[in-house]
Amino acid sequence: MKAERKEGAAAQPGSRSASVRSRLIDVAERLFAEHGVDTVSLNQIARAANQRNSMVIQYHFGSKTALLQAIAERRMQAVNERRLQLLGRVDGSSRLTDLRRLAEAMVLPFAEHLSHEGGSYFVRLSAQLYSDPRLEFFQLIKGRHDSGMREAGRVSREILSELPRDAVKHRLALITSLIFSAFADREKLRAAGKHVGVARLHTAHFVNDLITMIVGALNAPYGERTLTDNDVSSVAVNEAGMPVTGVDTLGISEGSDA
After folding, report:
1. Which of 52, 67, 128, 186 has a CA-to-CA distance to 200 between 20 and 30 Å?
2. CA neighbours within 13 Å on the CB side: how many for 151?
């Protein structure tokens, strides 16, 4: 007698269901990337995957969150392994060389993933998952495929040992956000056939510029000039929320050579 499946529990992938499961992951990844995680329903994914059973997602995964986790795990295993491999090149030979290799370890695994089938969709989806605190991208892979990011944090603290720990953590958070958004914005433009801005750059040039910017951000001086809450709150904005030009909030007049 077969045991009944508990309500809400996902099916374990077997030989007969593996292809269906893989198809659902592919379709969900594409739809989430193109239309947004909140916009796409589980029924839409099932229909797009040519599945008649409207509960097929619940059967194979259990929930939308579990489906997102399956997408992230499938992609991030290779990204994580590649990141660890690249971090192994950081050898203490020189500060700038180590920072360059650290930046490459953060960027190249995603850049290389673009050549994989569906890689562009995953990059665009990753930016959504990272920027939305409800989705918690790193929680989806925590304890499974996040060792590369944790090692990047350790290496960063070692190279930038003169900086406060919180300062290093803050810079890494900003850089991670930059990486996700830069790749996602470029892929969205290219997918729409709009070769403007960063989408005009050859991939190698785009990646090299991004890595160079990250090295500069990591190596930037600390504490020479800091803004206060009053500085930030005093910036005048227009109706669109953009800073009004000519406002000398930083002590630099418009047109100044400073």
Report:
1. 128
2. 21
Question: What CATH class does 76-220 carry?
Answer: mainly alpha
Q: Which long-range contacts (CB under 8 A, 24 or more apart) does 120-123 make?
A: 120/33, 120/187, 120/190, 120/191, 121/29, 121/30, 121/32, 121/33, 121/34, 122/29, 122/33, 122/71, 122/75, 123/180, 123/183, 123/184, 123/187
Show the low-confidence residues of the chain (pLDDT under 50).
1-9, 240-258
3-state secondary structure of 237: strand
**Whether 179 contacts 130, CB under 8 Å:** no
Q: What is the DSSP string of 148-172?
A: HHHHHHHHHHHHTTTS-HHHHHHHH
Task: Tell which CATH architecture fits domain 8-62.
Answer: Orthogonal Bundle (1.10)
Cα 132 to Cα 68: distance, rounded to the nearest angstrom: 13
Give the Cα separation of 178 and 216 in Å (integer). Answer: 13
Domain ranges of the chain: 8-62, 76-220
Token pair for 38: 């909140």
How far is C-alpha 11 from the geometric centre of its chain's CA atoms?
28
92 with 43: CB under 8 angstroms? no
Q: 80: Cβ–Cβ under 8 A, 6 or more apart, which residues?
A: 109, 141, 145, 146, 147, 148, 149
For the entire predicted model, the pTM comes to 0.75
What pLDDT does 235 receive?
A: 52
The owner of tokens 């892929």 is 187
Q: Specify the pLDDT at position 242.
A: 47
Cα maximum dimension of the chain: 82
Compute the distance between CA of residue 23 and CA of residue 31 in angstroms, rounded to an integer. 12
Which amino acid type is present at position 112? Answer: E
